[in-house]
Amino acid sequence: MNLPTLEQKKNRLFIILCGIFLTNALVAEMIGVKIFSGENAVGLHPANLNILGFTMDFNLTAGAVIWPVVFITSDLINEYFGKPGVKRISYLTAAMIAYSFVVIFFTMKLPPAQWWLDANRTDAEGNYFNMEFAFNKIFGQGQRIIIGSIAAFLLGQLVDVFVFQQLRKITGTRMLWLRATGSTLVSQLMDSFVVLFIAFYGVFSNSQIIAIGLTNYLYKFVVAILLTPLIYGGHFVIGNYLGKENAEKLSEEAASKSGSFL
Q: How far apart are the first and last CA of the chain?
């Protein structure tokens, strides 16, 4: 039995990380239409935070549940494959998200089969249920929300890789927590407000958009801090897979790779 070479291991690692990144980003976009109560999810009362004169609770999109996986995977790709690796998968993921929304748009235009409507005419309690309306309502996100989401995703990723590499130059191989968590905190600050202003400018007041953005960012800030141990866990797994010396060498090569910000 032939054991995989180091180059094969590196290629497999990149494919696996990219697969995790792309899948979670896509799923997060699809489930993001649902808004849930963060406080109720953990058995707490609504926060009722007063931000800029607005009473705000932690009402979050369901996509926020798995976006942390995207953050972690992005940092691992950045650490071992550098700026080019993150840029490639970020552009590909943005294109796949856009493609998914185009496909969904056309499927919403397909005429429903009558037997499908009849089979799903009532809910579990016998109440009338319009399956076609529900399908279109769930998947039919507004155009501005879609554009804002893709734009915020790309900008967040590009800012993340830039900040990560700048911190990498300062810290070297030390202080992994600083470059991983620090880059996430900066990129998510951008992401939190870009998507809201593109999607809801002119719909909500600027003060309300900022209040919503601050609430969302506070959640992301706390999650980014809590996820720091998982970053070290990911490095441990990769170190065992490639070998510690090989992993360190790959990380050094990634740090030395140059490329434009865009």
A: 43
Closest CA to 206 of 52, 81, 91: 52
Looking at the domain assignment, is residue 223 inside a domain?
A: yes
CATH code for position 237: 1.10.1760
DSSP 8-state secondary structure symbol assigned to residue 53: T
Alpha carbon of residue 194 to chain centroid: 14
Beta bridge partners of 122: 128
Residues 201-254: tens digit of each pLDDT: 887 888 888 888 888 888 888 888 888 888 889 989 999 999 989 988 888 888
Tell me how crowded residue 53 is: count the other CB atoms within 10 A of its CB. 8
- pTM for this entry: 0.87
User: Do residues 56 and 212 touch, judged by C-beta distance below 8 A?
Assistant: yes
Kindly write down the DSSP assignment for every residue of 90-119, as one continuous string. Answer: HHHHHHHHHHHHHHHHHHHHSPPPHHHHHH
Contact between residue 82 and residue 12 where contact means Cβ atoms under 8 Å apart: no
Cα gap 34→201, rounded to integer Å: 21
Within a domain: 126: no
1-28 b/e (C-beta count within 10 Å ≥ 16 → b)? eeeeeeeebbeebbeebbebbbbbbebb
Q: What is the mean pLDDT of the chain?
A: 87
What is the tens place of the pLDDT at every residue in 167-198?
888 887 778 788 888 888 888 888 888 888 88
In three-state secondary structure terms, 129 is coil
What is the number of structural domains in the chain? 1
Question: Which residue from 133, 103, 136 is spatially nearest to 117, judged by alpha carbons?
Answer: 133
